[in-house]
């Protein structure tokens, strides 16, 4: 029987509920249990694919092609395992299947009601996911914070599960304890209110993960425990950390896995946190920097920079840097600034490598193309991810192949040279505006050409990587690009689609149609990110 741990959030969002979920999964897996993790998101979007990344952070893609919340990426990185599509649901997807079932007479003429039919659908999905993973434990993150309307039906599902199987279900509240500057004291009251909100939903947390700027002291732990109806050891202090990968180690320093197992009445198994502790030591020891500039557009929201829009890219770059014992110095570069003032391109020379991540639409594109041209001509290592490949091909077509008017059909549907075009099935999707969940999604095979940077980096010929795109390199133009040195070093064997291109005679100028960042893990850095950072370090030595 799978045991479930629901992780809810209190007080406010953005305090690391996803990483806490991933870390609980990690520490239980480190004790030899079979663990999986899942997320329930309250919004009505059927998946995360139609949301602007500035609104909701990166859209992660699973191996089986689900467009989901970025937290799934954290689960994969911490667990070192693929999370299947069953492990993710939104209010939209749950309602959609209940309504579809009703339309198919699947409820035998009954009145279909929000309660219990929505929570029952949630429970059925969780059980399916746990069964498929044959999980001893499934950690389920409930999106949003307790007390809002949006996620109340998910709490209801969790409550119903606990009622039906009291020994198999547990609750963790990840809450925030502010230290108002003028008061200078850690305040427990907001968390007390969060617990009240949970209680009102019929749920008592078994543990509180107390997020705060500094560790929680004994008097406040005692107070919070008493007022929230918990024992003091069940309050886990979780102060801010430099690297999220320290969190499982911190949880284990508070013996969290042992406490969880004890409450469930599960016999503890030997703990092996060694690989994880070694990782944390490696991260802490990396002092010398490697400086990478990331050129894109999904950074700004008012006065704030939302690094969440590219979280997997950032993590993959960090994994690559740590692999080479370097401290990643990742700098955001606003593509639009290069359009307004091309003289600013000079700043690119101060970087050891340039990345252009995935993207959509026309904003900033000419600035990105300028940055790519700069990196190509000055031989600065360049790594293009999806849009970063497509725009590199456009840049190369325009400036190295003399194809004036080269562009992607995504931006210029009448381009004279449509270097980036669509496949036939996508033309229909675009015309009929069937735009949700219809991109080329998930894992596809790729065959690597001998003697290329890509082949060398992977150390094997046949690989699979995850995709999320509607447009492709047009095979019509591949010969022209290859004649000038931009060669297809990876091709999908089934449909003969270009997956990787790289430039001969450049230290590292490589773009992928897929998103390698989605498969990079801290304990298994992605081969292309390792190779890119290696090239960046060569560039660093050359530039000095
Ligand atoms: N906009 C491009 C496409 O749809 C690239 C997508 C991406 O970078 N993920 O093909």
Question: What does this protein structure show overall?
Answer:
The protein has 544 residues and is an alpha/beta fold. The chain has two domains: 277 residues, 3-Layer(aba) Sandwich (Rossmann fold); 256 residues, Rossmann fold (3-Layer(aba) Sandwich). Helix content is 38%, strand content 23%. The chain is built from 19 helices and 23 strands. A nine-stranded mixed sheet has the order 13-10-14-15-23-22-21-18-19, sandwiched between helices. Strand 22 and strand 23 form a beta hairpin. Helix 1 runs parallel beside helix 3. The longest helix is centred in the N-terminal third of the chain and has 20 residues. It is globular, with a radius of gyration of 25 Å. The N and C termini lie far apart (60 Å). The mean pLDDT is 94. The structure holds glutamine (GLN). The site of glutamine has 11 residues, from helix 15 and strand 19.
